[in-house]
Amino acid sequence: MPASVPDRYSLEIRLGRDGDVEEWLATDTSLDRPVLVRTLGPESTSERRAEFVEGVSGAAKVSHPHLARVFAVDTVEGGAYSVSEWTGGASVADRVDASQAIELPDFLPNASGLAGALASLHEGGVTHGGIDLHAISYSAEHAAKLGGFGRARRTGAEGDVRSLAAALETALTGSPPGGPSPSERIDGLPKAIDRILRAGQSGELTAAALEKALQAAPTPRAPRAGSAKTSRRLLYAALGLVVAAVGLVALGLAFSTGGEPILPPVQTSNPTALATSTTASVPVKRPDVVAIGNVTTFDPYGGGGEHDDDLPNLIDGDEETRWRTEQYLDPLPLLKPGVGITFTISGSPSRLSLAGLSRDTVFEIYWSDAYFADLSGWSRVLGGKAGPGTTEVALPDRVDGFWMLWLVELPLQTEGTYYSAIAEVRFLP
Question: What is the pTM of this model?
Answer without folding.
Answer: 0.54
